[in-house]
Amino acid sequence: MRTDCLRQRRFASSWRGQCLPELANCGEEQLIQQGKVRYFGLSEAGTQTIRRAHPVQPVTALQSEYSLWWKRPEEEIIPTLEELGIGLVPFSPLGMGFLTGAITESTQFDPEDNRGHLPALLA
Hints:
Elements: E1 3-8, H1 28-33, E2 37-43, H2 47-56, E3 61-65, H3 77-84, E4 87-91
Parallel strand pairs: 1-2, 2-3, 3-4
Helix pairs in contact: 2-3
């Protein structure tokens, strides 16, 4: 498993279980020490989770939704990342396809496509 970055795919609520970043760290530190992973990242974590995790296992990057349509990360997340020297990997920079012009009032999403359940994309 030689990889450059391990992104912790857990939402903030998952940290309340057995993998509190300041306690167990879920094994990432061992993978990094063994040379199997070079960097550690989080996905969609809030500022409190980032601040708790970073001192225990330095966070290299955070993956979070960020676009012209969804700028909420500018309120607290981006300032926290800048303060701690953590990079941002934005996902859905085109608003889940909405800002491409390809989604219209007649667009029908596949039942497996979560965009069909988002109020902002429903006609």
